[in-house]
Amino acid sequence: MGDPAGIGPEITAKATASQDIRGLAVFVVIGDKAVMQRAFSENAPRGGVRCVHAGIDEADGLALEEGRVYVLDPGGGDLAGITPGRPSPEGARKALLCIERAASLLELHDKDHPMAMVTSPVDKKEISGVRAGFAGHTEFLQEYFHAEMTTMLLAGDTLKVATVTRHIPIREVPRQLTRELLEKTIAQVIDNRAMISGKDRPVIGVCALNPHAGEGGKIGTEEIDVITPVIGSLRGSYGYIKGPLPADVAFYQALKGEIDIVISMYHDQGLGPFKMMDFDNGVNMTLGLGHVRTSPDHGTAFDIAARRVASSRSMENAIRLAVNALTAGASGLK
Amino acid sequence: MGDPAGIGPEITAKATASQDIRGLAVFVVIGDKAVMQRAFSENAPRGGVRCVHAGIDEADGLALEEGRVYVLDPGGGDLAGITPGRPSPEGARKALLCIERAASLLELHDKDHPMAMVTSPVDKKEISGVRAGFAGHTEFLQEYFHAEMTTMLLAGDTLKVATVTRHIPIREVPRQLTRELLEKTIAQVIDNRAMISGKDRPVIGVCALNPHAGEGGKIGTEEIDVITPVIGSLRGSYGYIKGPLPADVAFYQALKGEIDIVISMYHDQGLGPFKMMDFDNGVNMTLGLGHVRTSPDHGTAFDIAARRVASSRSMENAIRLAVNALTAGASGLK
């Protein structure tokens, strides 16, 4: 559901009730019963949604009918006072309860009951007021599933981009960009390449850190010290990798189809080009959790909440990518 | 001409001889006579090019016929041994002589004889072997014209982008990003806004340095300490300026037409999105020289030199922008 005062309930209802999406899986929306009932009746009046309160037997797994959408309310929280567009501690608390419930359900995943998690946007600041240190879905789930490290992957109609460092100041980037981190990030992308790109041997383009790829050490040395050695060491096991490429070359080649997946060294290097092209359809995927987790690549959009104008395109793509990932098999999830 | 072994001679010949461009100005190609004659005969056999050796009287200015293309050879250098595609000290030396000659001609600029300089790509490394410390056209001209500071502006069909810091390592960016530098950069863009955007009141979007514009200080403090105060101080004199914007929002809005000129804090933040969209047509312009100087935004392309496949589109756009800048008047050049 995400934050109940954002566009999460609306895009969840629109996406899961749409004809294109409904047949892909059994959907269980973890959310507030009243909020989600309203969202479904406003945005998908004939969606055939059944509200399940809490009657799922976790020991036996889920016994659900194909092609239906269920709402599971984890209980707790009182959202009577919630106003669309206004973040609140009550809304944040409920959103957090939903994430926790979804994560616990995900542990029931096995090969007979494949499960994926698709998250809706939350207000990090509001949740961190309720749960100190909450830094986002990705960090929460990384800790929950005891994952050593994860990679943020952005998948859009035009570009597929992974970032090595994430939400840190630019001044911290050179320090955090170690051989170890870079190697593990590229390895996670290589492991998941088929799911990300739909190809067995996609071309992976690794960006440089510095302008013009450092011009042989004249504009920074990280290409020589960190990036080139890591690419060299990985090329033995996967040949379709190139770099370090100047970022302004890598994205141009990606747009022309010469590179399938771009690995950027830091947030804006990857997200600038990515969001320019795929703002409305982009999907965020976390690699390395041991479970499939995707999310639309946009925020709560409080300014347009409950106006029934939000696009569910990114949410629909997040669902499609999650289903594809399950189909590609658990082998690609580590 | 640029480096004689690169695509400079070819794109210069193609562009100046093309019907669309020829009528815009009188063109004087500063280059090697033999190299340029070959380039014109191969790429524009009916271009009507007259080769002028060195007979221009700098005291009286240039007496040239409208609608013709001249070649002015500054003399010096022996290019008999030059092979297309192979950079050499001889080629670099001649390219440098041409730049110096062009800069000295530019000093003849006055309101009756408006002049602009359009540079062709050179090999910086090769020239710096001939002239220690040569860092590129921009830096050379900045010193030549005693300009206190200049701004690199990239103009393409899709995006217009200025960068605050340029060819420096990422680790140096936060240190070099001072209030003074930012203020002067934005001021130069404001001064030249009509020429850049074709509008009186273009919307100027200023990027943040850090991801998510620093999230209120949680991801870096430069937005609070440097960028926001500068924007605030400039808004009084020019109201159509906004920021600091997360880079992944700024370029998305620019692509949608909501921002006319983006100011990026560092090279890849701006050039990644810019080159992705405008690689083939982009133009580089130097603001603050006191003279108009543009150049195609690509390199020497030694790999395709003299194969007659190079696109002159970016060179043609560089010429168009230079002519527009002269038309907009010298007021916009400081």
What are the defining features of this structure?
homodimer, 334 residues, alpha/beta, Isopropylmalate Dehydrogenase, 2 domains, 8-stranded mixed β-sheet, 3-stranded parallel β-sheet, 40% helix, globular
Task: Show the helix and strand layout.
The structure is a homodimer of 334-residue chains.
Chain A: H1 8-17, H2 19-22, E1 27-30, H3 33-43, E2 49-52, E3 69-72, H4 89-106, E4 116-118, H5 124-130, H6 137-144, E5 151-155, E6 160-163, H7 173-176, H8 179-191, H9 193-197, E7 204-207, H10 222-235, E8 241-245, H11 247-256, E9 261-264, H12 267-278, E10 283-287, E11 292-296, H13 313-328
Parallel strand pairs in A: 1-3, 2-3, 4-11, 6-9, 7-8, 7-9
Antiparallel strand pairs in A: 5-6, 5-10, 10-11
Short description:
Two copies of one chain form a homodimer. In chain A, a hairpin with a 4-residue loop joins strand 10 (283-287) and strand 11 (292-296).
- Biggest interface pair, residues each? A-B, 39 and 40 residues
Q: Structural class, from secondary structure content of chain A?
A: alpha/beta
Total count of domains of chain A: 2
DSSP helical segment count of chain A: 13
Your description of this structure?
- The structure is a homodimer of 334-residue chains.
- The first copy, chain A, has 334 residues and is of the alpha/beta class.
- In chain A, 40% of the residues lie in helices and 14% in strands.
- Chain A has 13 helices and eleven strands.
- In chain A, the strands form two sheets. An eight-stranded mixed sheet of chain A has the order 4-11-10-5-6-9-7-8, with helices on both faces. Chain A has a three-stranded parallel sheet with strand order 1-3-2.
- Mean pLDDT of chain A is 90; it is low at 330-334.
- The interface between A and B is large, with 39 and 40 residues.
